[in-house]
Amino acid sequence: MKLIPLVLLALMCSWPASPAEAGDIQVAERHGNHTLTIDGEPFFMLGAGGDAGLDRLAAAGGNALRTWGVGPETRDLLDRAHEHGLKVAVGFWLAHARHGFDYGDVDAVAAQKAKVREGVLTLKDHPAVLMWVLGNEMEGFGEGDDVRIWEHVQDLAAMVKQLDATRPRMTVTTEIGGARVAMINKHCPDIDIHGINSYGGAQNLPKRYREAGGVKPYMITEFGPLGTWEVGKTPWGAPIEPTSTEKAGFYRASYEGGVLSEKDGLCLGSFAFFWGDKQEVTATWFGMFLPDGSKTAAVDIMTELWSGSPPADRAPSIASLAVEGPATREPGAEVRANLKAQDPEGEALRVVWRFKAEAREYLMGGDAEPVVPEFPEVIVDSDEGGATLVMPETPGAYRIFAFVYDPSGHAAVANVPLLVEAASENAGGDGPRGAEAE
After folding, report:
1. How wide is the angle at C-alpha 345 spanned by C-alphas 340 and 348, nearest 5°?
2. Which of 28, 122, 232, 281 is the most exposed place for a label (fewest CB within 10 A)?
3. How far apart are alpha carbons 84 and 59 in whole angstroms?
4. What tens digit of pLDDT does each residue of 256-274 get?
5. Dihedral angle at the C-alpha atoms of 36, 41, 46, 49, nearest 10 degrees?
């Protein structure tokens, strides 16, 4: 037998894994119970959406992540995921009609199909690829009954099945209202898994899904705090953001009600949202981490649910953040904000106060939003228990934020909306949504 030269051996070792080495991944069904398997072994999805440190995801007990699009950076992400023992649900972004895409445009649909084909052929031999995700909320926020969209999804699923029969195919919808479940059941036989983005309704999703006629196994592909569209609002229309402590409790309830309760039935797992930070109405609403990278209690909760044990050092908790007196004030008025927070381990806390303008628009669907301006000069005095503010001269809507840190850099956050109106204006009425940058 000839000896293989060392250089050739090194090159062979660097080649991508074959599909067989990557594992045969299937959705198995037995007596109505569905299971995702890798080479015949059960694999329950303990996933997150986002890329705020794959090492942190693996350390928390997660085993997978999802993406929303394929680009030049995808292979690097797959490589890093594989290094940490993580699988990736590779997402292909399908254009949304609400952004102007016409699913009746034959050429545009064909071009979209060609991109999916190219992506699958490029990535299918990577061992970190767990499944192919065809679209995310491309049906919009209405009834979801545009048959052209679902016929296109089926066309893609059939193509992907031919290109790679070793991995399942999933499509993701905005919750399950309207005709979504029926459309997928009728028009998408080659879709193996129904991915569902669910926030306020995640806890009772199993019951609602079955009542809607759901028969395919599902995953909750996004869950987390109540959405910006699901909470109470101030008189001037600003959504009231839960504290990071309140959000953590909602992660737990959603996971236990929407995922674990159906684990031995139709549910194959989930992806917590968002493993990172993003600006969506505020910079803190959906992020499980703060913009500075500090982890919040949502990470602690998911660590416990994934691994079976809470972390040794947990994030601080916030009991309340409130302002004294009315939330609508005149320019130059003095306002006092009071904070009640504590650390589970009893360590001293550091509080950072920030005063920001309100978002100019309340967008939906994760559309990109600009970072809002900040006004540090408004905060004239502060400590761990509260802050004194002098309202800016520019009328508009604002928020006061309290960022609470323990010595290890774990954090909690809360905010309160405020409105600045001149004395002649109708206090508490329909004031301007956002403040102008100075």
Report:
1. 55
2. 232
3. 9
4. 999 999 998 999 999 999 9
5. -60
